[in-house]
Amino acid sequence: MKMSLRIVTALTALAAICALGTRRVARAQESAMPQSAASVVKTKVYTSLDPVPRGKEFQVAVVVDIQNGYHMNSHKPLDSYLIPTTVTPQLPAGITLADTVYPPGKNLKFPFSPDKPLNVYTERVTLRLRLSAGDSAVLGDASIPVTLRYQACNDRACFPPRTIEISVPYQVQ
After folding, report:
1. Structure pTM?
2. Do the beta carbons of residue 66 and residue 125 sit within 8 Å?
């Protein structure tokens, strides 16, 4: 009887130590996880011509880096209830949009949807705007406000959809 009491006491102490260790690991994982969709997605912009001549087409590349372990829905998600990634320019006078080019996403399965893949962007994706500077485009330095809308997720949960404003500097000559 004394031996079994010692074993029960030892097992209880071991269980308490394991529970404490598990809580510490969980806290460390939580603190390592991003706290917002903004910390998961970073953007850079590039223009194909500098300066942009009047009457010429040019492109803007919005490069989106997605933190490892996260994804965002492609521009054409497979289900209508999913939030598509979009990039929308607010064009100044004299600048016209010829096309917005979205790359295809990857069909990936996740633990929350093991039978049906999702069409997503991971790691890095480049969204392109094909623009044209007309004869009436204002000469000099300017910028194009661009809105990026996305929803960042990991394999367990999604952040609320987010819209960020990006400024694309360019110069017309």
Report:
1. 0.77
2. yes
Write 58-61 long-range contacts (CB < 8 A, 24+).
58/131, 58/132, 58/133, 58/170, 59/128, 59/129, 59/130, 59/131, 60/89, 60/128, 60/129, 60/131, 60/144, 60/146, 60/168, 60/170, 61/126, 61/127, 61/128
Q: How far apart are CA 9 and CA 141, in angstroms?
A: 76
Nearest to 101 by CA among 70, 66, 125, 77: 125
**Residue 52 identity (one-letter amino acid):** V
Q: Is 49 helix (H, G, I), strand (E, B) or coil?
A: coil
Q: Which residue has the higher pLDDT, 14 or 45?
A: 45
| Local structure of 25: helix, strand or coil | helix
Length of the chain equals 173
- Show the tokens assigned to 96: 């016209």
CA–CA dist 162, 149 (Å, integer): 6
